[in-house]
TrEMBL record:
Taxonomic lineage from the root: Bacteria, Bacillati, Actinomycetota, Actinomycetes, Streptosporangiales
Pfam family, one: MerR_1
SUPFAM superfamilies xrefs: Putative DNA-binding domain
Species this protein is from: Nocardiopsis sinuspersici
Protein name: MerR family transcriptional regulator/heat shock protein HspR
Entry's Gene Ontology molecular function annotations: DNA binding; DNA-binding transcription factor activity
Entry superkingdom: Bacteria
Length: 190
């Protein structure tokens, strides 16, 4: 039996329902019920017949053990299987993230010690994130009344601001960007 399993793999849906039921020590009707409840959902053949994998058979054995030995009802068994599947996925994700982190640490180590803020050496193994930002000019060429970001200016706001009601960005004395000359800095304001 293991020779067949080894040649196809544990996830290959190769067993018809009668063989899977025999391997799991159950009645075929029980397997149909588990399929309807979503506890163990086998693959389907072209004629819509159920095809169980060795992993499905192992899950069926686990369902039987939980039901008979532990006294867990079918709803509880379904939840246990869902949580085990979720844990398996999370472990796989942690594995991949740990590999990525290790690769990033090796890349930083290969580059040598990054320079610190005062020109000295930084912390070895420090990961530096760089972000690229692209800004597109959406204003039509030669339109001085429209700012570079495409938003229309408010009346009387000058070339740099968006209106006199916005502190620090426009209007006379509000921030130095409008027509009114130098504005106050944030520290000078009340």
């Amino acid at each position: 039996m293991n020779d067949v399993n080894d040649s196809f793999g544990t996830d290959a849906p190769v067993y018809v329902i009668s063989v899977a039921a025999e391997l799991a020590g159950m009645h075929p009707q029980t397997l149909r019920q588990y399929d309807r409840l979503g506890i163990v959902s086998p693959g389907r053949a072209s004629g819509r017949g159920r095809r169980y994998s060795m992993r499905d058979v192992q899950t069926l054995r686990q369902v039987q053990r939980l039901s008979q030995d532990e006294g867990v009802n079918l709803a509880g068994i379904k939840r246990i299987l869902e949580l085990e599947h979720e844990v398996e996925q999370l472990r796989e994700q942690v594995f991949h993230l740990a590999n990525e982190l290790e690769a990033a640490r090796r890349a930083v180590t290969r580059r040598g010690r990054p320079a610190g803020p005062e020109g000295g050496a930084g912390v070895r193994g420090e990961l530096v994130r760089r972000t690229r930002l692209t800004i597109f000019n959406t204003a039509e060429p030669g339109n001085p009344d429209e700012p570079r970001d495409g938003r229309p200016r408010a009346e009387g706001s000058g070339r740099g601001g968006y209106g006199p009601d916005v502190p620090g960005q426009g209007g006379p004395g509000n921030g130095g960007f409008g027509q009114g000359g130098p504005g106050r800095t944030e520290d000078e304001q009340d």
